Amino acid sequence: MAYELPELPYGYNELEPAMSEKQLKIHHDKHHQGYVNKANALLEKLDKARQDNSELDMKATLKALSFNVAGHVLHSLFWTSMSPKGGEPSEKLLEAINKDFGSLERFKAEFTQAASTVEGSGWAALTYDDTSGKLMVMQLEKHNVNLVPAQKLLLVVDVWEHAYYLDYQNERGKFLESFWGIVNWEEVSKRHEAL
């Protein structure tokens, strides 16, 4: 079974003005599709090497596979982390945010700072840590560097330039400001309830 590009749960123009139709189309149809295509090609390469019993540079192949699969997983989560409706966290999620961050405002400030300060390309994520039982904010460089395996991803924002450059040029902060207006809190709350 191969990886597939998921359909968006909204129209290409429905996140405007926070994210333009052109920006979303390029990001989803070109960038995300590229990760899917590369991941599938790498899986085929692994299968072929196994069938032919041929040598393969495993370090390079597995690094590339991890990068592309992580790109696919994070983008799939990103699309459903946004909604034209926006909204508010559920009572249970808000309670957890208040407990672990002090307030929703403090959480948003920490998350925004994490996203703003990713070096180069990457992501910010709200996670749940199985070990401590706490919500945490995490930076992910590229797609897969600094990911802690015990963390469950609840909310992610893509801060690679391809996520915002057409709409905001180099003003990542303005993109993040707009992002808060389209966060799909209903979906994030469902992820939290499922823990």
Characterize this entry briefly.
It contains 7 helices and 3 strands; from the N terminus they run H-H-H-H-E-E-E-H-H-H. By secondary structure, it is an alpha+beta fold.
Structural summary, described in words:
With about 200 residues, this protein is an alpha+beta fold. The chain folds into two domains: about 20-80, Fe,Mn superoxide dismutase (SOD) domain (Helix Hairpins, Orthogonal Bundle); about 90-195, Iron/manganese superoxide dismutase, C-terminal domain (minor pseudopilin epsh fold). About 50% of the residues lie in helices and about 10% in strands. It has seven helices and three strands, in the order ααααβββααα. It has a three-stranded antiparallel sheet with strand order 2-1-3. The radius of gyration is 18 Å and the shape is globular. The chain starts with 20 loop residues before the first helix and ends with a helix.
Order of strands across the widest beta sheet?
2-1-3
What do we call the CATH homologous superfamily of the largest domain? Iron/manganese superoxide dismutase, C-terminal domain
CATH topology of the largest domain: minor pseudopilin epsh fold
**Strand segment tally:** 3
State mean pLDDT (0 to 100 scale): 95
CA-atom Rg in angstroms: 18 Å
Q: What is the CATH first-level class name of the largest domain?
A: Alpha Beta
CATH-level-2 architecture of the largest domain: 3-Layer(bab) Sandwich
The N- to C-terminal Cα distance equals 27 Å
The helix content is: 40-55%
